[in-house]
């Protein structure tokens, strides 16, 4: 399996990437099984993953338990582990969850756990912080994501979503605000953004 190294806050994180052929086979099997919204791209390191990982140093100090949504290979979750959070990795793909946990162990966190589930059917587990990166690209997933956030966030908790300024992020923000969420936008230095721009990275912090 290919390996890649990224430096986050002065610390090197080494992680395994999936074999492209195995990823393609999994995608074909998911589509053949009729799984809605199957994502064949979880093994990619998407644009918002690294800046979101770097912002985990600004994590809310009151958060103890955290769930990474759409973990992929687990880079952002590993950065959160280094920042002192108790992280559970989650993804629709069981292969992604398994790889994220292996990557966490590779970086000194063998106790990391994972959950494989679809946002259409979130489990009853609750966490102080829900976070993810590049998970707003498909508008069909916005409503299920909000259901997951409502069900899995502890009262008083926060949601952090890193986005690379993709076209569908404003639609999700409007939907979330209509559902009663307050949104604070931050840049890659954790400075407030008053008017997010297209193709500009932002961290959306959701609270109720």
Commentary on this structure:
The protein is α/β, with parallel strands linked by helices and 208 residues long. Strands 5-4-3-6-7-9-8 form a 7-stranded mixed beta sheet, sandwiched between helices. Strands 1-2 form a two-stranded antiparallel sheet. The relative contact order is 0.14. The model has no long low-confidence stretch (mean pLDDT 91).
**Biggest sheet: strand arrangement:** 5-4-3-6-7-9-8
Question: Uncertain runs with pLDDT below 50, 5 residues or more?
Answer: none
Structural class: alpha/beta
Global Rg: 16 Å
Helix content: 25-40%
Structure at a glance:
This protein is 30% helix and 26% strand. By secondary structure, it is α/β, with parallel strands linked by helices.
Question: Notable features of this structure?
Answer:
single chain; alpha/beta; two-stranded antiparallel sheet; 6 helices; globular
